[in-house]
Amino acid sequence: xxxxxxxxxxxxxxxxxxxxxxxxxxxxxxxxxxxxxxxxxxxxxxxxxxxxxxxxxxxxxxxxxxxxxxxxxxxxxxxxxxxxxxxxxxxxxxxxxxxxxxxxxxxxxxxxxxxxxxxxxxxxxxxxxxxxxxxxxxxxxxxxxxxxxxxxxxxxxxxxxxxxxxxxxxxxxxxxxxxxxxxxxxxxxxxxxxxxxxxxxxxxxxxxxxxxxxxxxxxxxxxxxxxxxxxxxxxxxxxxxxxxxxxxxxxxxxxxxxxxxxxxxxxxxxxxxxxxxxxxxxxxxxxxxxxxxxxxxxxxxxxxxxxxxxxxxxxxxxxxxxxxxxxxxxx
Length: 331
Ligand code: NDP
What we know:
By secondary structure, the chain is α/β, with parallel strands linked by helices. The protein has helices spanning 46-50, 126-138, 155-166, 179-187, 202-209, 223-232, 261-265, 282-295, 311-320; strands at residues 2-6, 19-23, 33-42, 71-78, 88-91, 98-102, 107-109, 146-149, 171-176, 193-196, 214-219, 233-241, 269-272, 302-306, 326-330. It contains nine helices and 15 strands. The strands form three sheets. Strands 3, 4, 5, 6, 7, 14 and 15 form a seven-stranded mixed β-sheet that branches. A six-stranded parallel β-sheet has the order 10-9-8-11-12-13, with helices on both faces. Strands 1-2 form a two-stranded antiparallel ribbon. The site of NADPH dihydro-nicotinamide-adenine-dinucleotide phosphate has 29 residues, from helix 2, helix 3 and helix 9. GO terms for molecular function: oxidoreductase activity.
């Protein structure tokens, strides 16, 4: 099995020197185990946090050990009756081409004819569910709400904008980091208006498109984007704090929003969340997203990088905005 390990803890932006590739001989299967040929690996922004040696909601990667992360693959060998050879499984033993371990670590999913299994890592998996949970259970989206999504052209963001519209939002606004992405937001993902945060300060640009203001903010970015959203939130507005990618590679202390007083004066609610605590909403989510996808009411994109040897580069590209929709490594 070819596997990727973290060998040094990055300060600021990670480099290729922080990782190494190793080839590991896998032992014979013990009872109730499975071996999986991975088809797709997920690279995700939260993995940057796991490269730091800090206590968090998910343990840090250990130096010199193979990293973990979302993956989907097919069982090629099994000693577990519930995990037959040929079954497709979603699991957390990513960053390697072949995964092996106790069968309980592998969740069998029903393949969808004609659809690549990568969807189970994206629109029908972790990132799609994150968008749904953030809107419904954290921001308590109601029909008629005006919604702003930052990081709108990414995996979570593209899902969030479309779910908001389908759940009755009156207007959906988005921000992303290039003219092409902004065009996709309005032309393909159904956003009513979108801005490129690299063209001018997001605060100015959001104020220009926000009209009477927003009721719900889905925050993937933090920093200046959160300040911009606070500026335009209407009384009683709610923000789901999902991510703060603007600060993940920063070595500076991130300053707090300079307009926090709006939280008081407008009675705003800001709530953070990590999906692990809300995974029980998956059946409800899948019951909606499956038909939305099948009918074309929801569209999705994936940016696919080929080869385990390019997995680290795929992660770097994700952090730099090189993806539209879900960033994946195809094995
Ligand atoms: P994305 O597909 O959105 O990829 C990351 C994107 O972030 C890039 O494409 C880039 O797009 C954008 N970005 C990078 N740097 C900056 C910056 N300085 N300012 C603004 N945008 C930036 O990743 P995901 O959809 O997987 O994740 C989106 C967010 O959701 C992340 O913050 C992640 O940590 C969070 N998350 C949280 C979860 C939870 O349980 N709370 C679960 C899953 C994700 P651009 O070109 O637009 O800059």
